[in-house]
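Sharing a chain and its predicted structure for anyone who wants a worked example. Both blocks are below, sequence first, tokens second.
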Amino acid sequence: MEALQSFLTKMGEDACFRQAYYANPNAVLAQSGLQGIYADAVMNQDSSALKALVGDDTIPFLLVNHGNKL
């Protein structure tokens, strides 16, 4: 859960990190330590799963469309 929270925070604060994610989402997720259900929730832009995995639905986060889905 901590890696997911850090990832979402960094996506919201670091433009270079977002650019790297847009260019190669799988690599950035792996480098961030996200795998399994955590990586799936990000890649699928599943807000319900992200809220459940973060464990606190009061924490705002940004879902990023990496171009594979609309």
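Comments welcome. The mean pLDDT is 84.
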